Amino acid sequence: MSTTTEPTAFAGVGVSAGRVIGPVRRMPEPLAPPADGAPLPDGASAEAESERLTAATQAVAANLKERAAHATGDAAAVLKATALMAADRTLLKSATRLVASGTSAESAIWEAADAVATQLTALGGYMAERATDVLDVRARIVAELRGVPAPGIPDADEPFVLWAVDLAPADTATLDPTKVRALVTSDGGPQSHTAIIARALGLPAVVAATGTEALADGDLVFVDGIDGAIVRNPGSAEEQLAEAYANRAELPAFDGAGRLADGTEVPLLSNVGSGEDAVAAAAANAQGVGLLRTEFCFLGKDTEPDHEEQVAAYRAVFEQFPGRKVVVRTLDAGADKPLPFLTDDSEPNPALGVRGYRTDLATPGVLSRQLAAIADAAEATAADVWTMAPMISTPAEAERFAALCAEAGLKTPGVMVEVPSAAVLAPQLLQRVEFASIGTNDLTQYTMAADRQLGALAELNDPWQPAVLHLIRTTCDGGAAASGRPAPKPVGVCGEAAADPALAVVLVGLGVATLSMNRRALPAVAAILRTVDAATARRLADLALAAGSATEAKAAVRAELPDLDRFGL
Ligand code: PEP
Ligand code: MG
């Protein structure tokens, strides 16, 4: 805990709205693996070392069981599975055998767990997924043996502000939103896993928060996910802000009809990455799916999933939206989504490499087979299936993708606009396809030449950057110029920008027809859109376009939307 009581401010990038005060808990350092086959500690007997190992295993199992008893839902299931694994006799037996032959307890459990995890991985499917539990248990046992905090989200009785360098997907499986008040990371950007999970759970979050490495367990901090600020030892000003946030008006649930105050319709769709996601999106009244990330069917696989497997996966999503639009994005492998059988991991700059649609050049066939599976799944359901390719850069690519869709019998081909060249040539692209969907995560990365995964560049990697907004307008103008039947070719947004209610107003003002987002953002975006008419949205878009920086653009627009404060957004 810090010794001074003076407030100290730290600046970062606010990626999920909310203002709270709480004590800091630091994410423990990842464990360094023990040396391979390390011998028994000096003077220790094999019996004593075995007893130490058994005691550590029992302590870990008991702790996990206890936490499982107090958890609910997914968290309880994960904790129970891990507790069972910790109590598993086979694992302990093989580790004890290694100790008996003169290996230290740490190295023995490390090696024994490795062997179990390798066997599970080889079995594939559900069993392969259990390999992660074994490795988690192993880390907990080694931490217990070393007397250091277990890796993963800290366990605490009181709600706390979680500080970490950045969070990995596995860390967030047991993140309990009733315990964690806010997230602060020294690294990570607006599209980092931390940011995505924070928005999904509705937790205030600040990423790329420079200097926050100095925060210690127990420090009291104010976290402002709206303005991207952290204050250690908060004063009355921060207390008032946190109180105003705590007393915010409750957002009404989304009623399934996105529109502006004057009745202009703005369909609000959901981004979906699995069958379960689709069920949840439909339950949240999403008006369809604006981005189906099909990677869920491919990630973690060494080979291409076959036709039947793909059809079943897509069908599970389509069935949730009879009569509704489902926009399927074809496989987006490469860069932040590497796939062993498609991407070359020796590329010097993967974000500028063979990724997205471009993988069809290096490995032809995967895309056509995927389109055939999408067509068969579409045929079997009543969803209105549209198909789009990621990372399209030229009109020729758009034309070829449309031809591949036609060959597969898919009627509504489109492109994602993620590369500045596609935005600039939007009229030509949209003469060749039926719609465009702007992926603002990548469009921002490529417009600003700032890696979306780099926390140090988080300020540049902000969709409020006026240069990005200009390209969005250019794309919408391109859609208006390329007329389809019955009206202009629609341009939607499916990047994280659509989930920011203030930015959503700007996007509509720029000419965006539909917005697709994480289902949890639907109520906030719907509520704020209903406070403006089309003329106001256009005026706010012009304000943002005229700003000199992302910060200025955001501040100018937010100042004109008082309901953001009312709802604590
Ligand atoms: C985007 O780039 O905005 C997008 C929606 O795609 P992804 O984040 O999956 O790259
Ligand atoms: Mg993208």
From TrEMBL:
<dbReference type="InterPro" id="IPR015813">
    <property type="entry name" value="Pyrv/PenolPyrv_kinase-like_dom"/>
</dbReference>
<feature type="region of interest" description="Disordered">
    <location>
        <begin position="25"/>
        <end position="51"/>
    </location>
</feature>
<dbReference type="InterPro" id="IPR040442">
    <property type="entry name" value="Pyrv_kinase-like_dom_sf"/>
</dbReference>
<keyword id="KW-0963">Cytoplasm</keyword>
<keyword id="KW-0418">Kinase</keyword>
<dbReference type="InterPro" id="IPR008279">
    <property type="entry name" value="PEP-util_enz_mobile_dom"/>
</dbReference>
<feature type="compositionally biased region" description="Low complexity">
    <location>
        <begin position="34"/>
        <end position="44"/>
    </location>
</feature>
<feature type="binding site">
    <location>
        <position position="442"/>
    </location>
    <ligand>
        <name>Mg(2+)</name>
    </ligand>
</feature>
<dbReference type="InterPro" id="IPR008731">
    <property type="entry name" value="PTS_EIN"/>
</dbReference>
<feature type="binding site">
    <location>
        <begin position="441"/>
        <end position="442"/>
    </location>
    <ligand>
        <name>phosphoenolpyruvate</name>
    </ligand>
</feature>
<keyword id="KW-0598">Phosphotransferase system</keyword>
<dbReference type="Pfam" id="PF02896">
    <property type="entry name" value="PEP-utilizers_C"/>
</dbReference>
<dbReference type="GO" id="GO:0016301">
    <property type="term" value="F:kinase activity"/>
</dbReference>
<dbReference type="InterPro" id="IPR036618">
    <property type="entry name" value="PtsI_HPr-bd_sf"/>
</dbReference>
<feature type="binding site">
    <location>
        <position position="418"/>
    </location>
    <ligand>
        <name>Mg(2+)</name>
    </ligand>
</feature>
<dbReference type="InterPro" id="IPR000121">
    <property type="entry name" value="PEP_util_C"/>
</dbReference>
<dbReference type="Pfam" id="PF00391">
    <property type="entry name" value="PEP-utilizers"/>
</dbReference>
<feature type="domain" description="Phosphotransferase system enzyme I N-terminal">
    <location>
        <begin position="12"/>
        <end position="130"/>
    </location>
</feature>
<dbReference type="GO" id="GO:0008965">
    <property type="term" value="F:phosphoenolpyruvate-protein phosphotransferase activity"/>
</dbReference>
<feature type="binding site">
    <location>
        <position position="329"/>
    </location>
    <ligand>
        <name>phosphoenolpyruvate</name>
    </ligand>
</feature>
<dbReference type="InterPro" id="IPR050499">
    <property type="entry name" value="PEP-utilizing_PTS_enzyme"/>
</dbReference>
<dbReference type="GO" id="GO:0046872">
    <property type="term" value="F:metal ion binding"/>
</dbReference>
<keyword id="KW-0479">Metal-binding</keyword>
<feature type="binding site">
    <location>
        <position position="452"/>
    </location>
    <ligand>
        <name>phosphoenolpyruvate</name>
    </ligand>
</feature>
<keyword id="KW-0808">Transferase</keyword>
<dbReference type="InterPro" id="IPR036637">
    <property type="entry name" value="Phosphohistidine_dom_sf"/>
</dbReference>
<dbReference type="GO" id="GO:0009401">
    <property type="term" value="P:phosphoenolpyruvate-dependent sugar phosphotransferase system"/>
</dbReference>
<comment type="similarity">
    <text>Belongs to the PEP-utilizing enzyme family.</text>
</comment>
<protein>
    <recommendedName>
        <fullName>Phosphoenolpyruvate-protein phosphotransferase</fullName>
        <ecNumber>2.7.3.9</ecNumber>
    </recommendedName>
</protein>
<keyword id="KW-0460">Magnesium</keyword>
<keyword id="KW-0762">Sugar transport</keyword>
<dbReference type="GO" id="GO:0005737">
    <property type="term" value="C:cytoplasm"/>
</dbReference>
<comment type="function">
    <text>General (non sugar-specific) component of the phosphoenolpyruvate-dependent sugar phosphotransferase system (sugar PTS). This major carbohydrate active-transport system catalyzes the phosphorylation of incoming sugar substrates concomitantly with their translocation across the cell membrane. Enzyme I transfers the phosphoryl group from phosphoenolpyruvate (PEP) to the phosphoryl carrier protein (HPr).</text>
</comment>
<feature type="active site" description="Tele-phosphohistidine intermediate">
    <location>
        <position position="193"/>
    </location>
</feature>
<dbReference type="InterPro" id="IPR024692">
    <property type="entry name" value="PTS_EI"/>
</dbReference>
<feature type="binding site">
    <location>
        <position position="293"/>
    </location>
    <ligand>
        <name>phosphoenolpyruvate</name>
    </ligand>
</feature>
<dbReference type="Pfam" id="PF05524">
    <property type="entry name" value="PEP-utilisers_N"/>
</dbReference>
<feature type="active site" description="Proton donor">
    <location>
        <position position="494"/>
    </location>
</feature>
<feature type="domain" description="PEP-utilising enzyme C-terminal">
    <location>
        <begin position="259"/>
        <end position="532"/>
    </location>
</feature>
<keyword id="KW-0813">Transport</keyword>
<feature type="domain" description="PEP-utilising enzyme mobile">
    <location>
        <begin position="158"/>
        <end position="228"/>
    </location>
</feature>
